[in-house]
Amino acid sequence: MAARDDLGPIVAGSCRPMYGSVTAEWNSRKEFTYQWRRSGDSIHITIPDYLDTAPDDVLREFAAFVCRKSRGSQEGFPADVRRYLMSDGYITGKRPVYLSRSRNLAMTSAGDNYDLCDSVQRLLDSGLLVEADVDNAYISWTLRDSVRRVGFCSTMFRVVGVSARLDSPDLADCVRDYVVYHECLHLRQGRMGARGHDPVFRAWERSFPGWRDIERTLSGLGRCL
Q1: Which of 11, 31, 74, 224 has the smallest CB count inside 10 Å?
Q2: pLDDT, tens digit, for every residue of 35-68?
Q3: What distance in Å separates the CA atoms of residue 163 and residue 75, rounded to the nearest whole number?
Q4: What is the CB-side half-sphere exposure of residue 90 using CA atoms within 13 A?
C-alpha cells in the first residue's frame, strides 16, 4: 500500500522559523531512518513511511525534530513521538511491514531441529528472562546460516533473529539459549534504547551460567553478536 500523499502539507510549517522552505518525502527502507538535505534557507527531509499512519501532530513533531537535528541538536525523540513509537498499536501495525522487508528471516521459530520458543521458555523458567522481556516479541530463525552474525534484534519492532547455523544438533542447547538471551536483553533495554552493549547490558549478559565457555564456542564459529 502506498504511503499517504499529504506529508508535505502536514509538515510544511513544522520547521519554521528555522527554515523558510520545507519539503518532505517518505522513505521505505527496512530500518527506521530519516535524513535531511539543506540548501540556504530551505530543507528537504525524508521521513520513514513507518509513520504514514501516525497522527498529524506526531508527524509535525517528528519533522520539527529532524529540522532541529539538522541544526546540531542532540535531543532525543519528542515525548509524543516516543509515546507513539512505543505503543503496542504501533508495533502491531508496523511490524508486518518490517518483516516484509527482512530478506533473511525464515518467519518461524521452528527450525529443522530446534524451536527457539523452547529456548525462551527455558530462560523464563530459569529466571534469566521475565515475561515483560519478551512480551509482544517476534522470534525467528534466519534463512542463511551466518557464523559472523549469529543473532540480531530490532528493538523498535521487537524482532529477534537467530542464525540458522545454530539449528544444529552439534551445538548444546545452552549455546542457542545464550544467543536468544543476548538478543532478548536488547528487548529488555527498550524500543527506544540506544545503549547497546553498555556495562549494565554486560552485567545482565554475564549472569548466564557458563557464558565464558559459550563465548569461546561462538568465537570458534566466527561469531559477531
Answers
A1: 74
A2: 999 999 999 999 999 999 999 999 999 999 999 9
A3: 35
A4: 21
